[in-house]
Design a protein that fits this description.
The protein is of the alpha/beta class and 100 residues long. The protein has a single domain, classed as Barnase, Chain D (2-Layer Sandwich). It has 3 helices and 3 strands; from the N terminus they run βααβαβ. It has a 3-stranded parallel β-sheet. Helix 3 links the parallel strand 2 and strand 3. Helix 2 runs parallel beside helix 3. The longest helix has 18 residues. It starts with 7 loop residues before the first strand and ends with a strand.
């Protein structure tokens, strides 16, 4: 019987992020992505489905320092959910915080 690889737990907390670039910086750092990671949804898809360590549990706090960023956070969450459904290499847990 093959040994199961360890599931890495990754916590994405955007509560201190005031700009979209800071959100992508949190993602890059927490997922241990390379410096050349692009700060956009297409690059995020590529990273989640082919670059980051898997298996992984991604815990996302749906929050941001500015409420104007929440639609962007929702788009990012959607990418993670789509990857979760398609590849089964990650699991995604989203917690909802009060909007600022």
């Amino acid at each position: 019987m093959a040994e199961q690889p360890d599931v890495k737990i990754r916590n994405l907390d955007f509560s201190e992020c005031r700009f979209l670039g800071e959100i992508y910086e949190v993602i890059k750092n927490e997922l241990e992505l390379p410096e050349w990671f692009g700060a956009n949804l297409d690059a995020l898809w590529d990273a989640v489905t082919g670059i980051m360590y898997t298996p992984a549990e991604i815990r996302i706090s749906r929050t941001a320092a500015r409420s104007e960023l929440l639609p962007d956070v929702d788009e990012i969450i959607a990418v993670f959910h789509e990857a979760e459904a398609k590849y089964h290499e990650i699991s995604v847990i989203v917690t909802f915080s009060e909007e600022k």
